[in-house]
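Morning!

This is the sequence you dropped in the shared folder:
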Amino acid sequence: MSQIVMVTGATSGIGEATARLFARNGYDLILTGRRHMRLDRLQAEFESLGVKVWTLCFDIRYRDSTEESLRKLPTEWQEIDILVNNAGLASGLNPLHEGDWEDWDKMLDTNVRGLLCVSRIVTQGMVARQRGHVINVGSVAGRFTYPNGAVYSATKHAVNAITQGMRIDLVKHGIKVSQVSPGLVETEFSEVRFHGDKERAKKVYEWLEPLKGEDIAEAIYWMATRPAHVNINDLWIMPTAQASPAYTSRNT
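The structure's back. Tokens below.
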């Protein structure tokens, strides 16, 4: 029987690349996201590879709809073997004293509360079965803060702390808990951060070669396929041209 992998935020970037890699390797998939047309497209693509796919369209920021969607999974989809907590975002890039409350709420609700809600529900089943693997997508911003990114960094510091605490709580149940912490990855991340300003977002990746979603997907897949006695606690991955969240070398 194929293992079931659940990927949150699967409709773009790292989440989409991760889902595609698992599909190509024969895993059945639960895909979550806010855009049903993209979910439908991915479902058709992956099912053409011979794997089973179940899609859930909801916004992870809202606990009621998140819980309702997960609690109503059909019986045959409830035994999730691998959970990839990928859904996350940055919103705004302002100094703290000029920060926007809506940006802050969006980041806290998505990156922290959403991850907690999904993890709480899915790990209950893992504990009952005494097996499973949770892989959280953090960020190097969870280790280093950078100018105008205090709140985003705080949410990713929280992901790092939650990952460590989750590992302690679940180790006695035979459940692996891992984290991948990427640096600069060219996805829709900056476009979302700048509220749809594509030109401003484009400049983030100019004059250097950033990571791609596929780079992080390969790391996640590698984590998930280690032998049963091996757990990868955390991987930091940055482009060669990046030394820290605030320092890059650009060929200008």
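Headline: The two ends are 52 Å apart (CA to CA).

More detail when I'm at my desk.
O.
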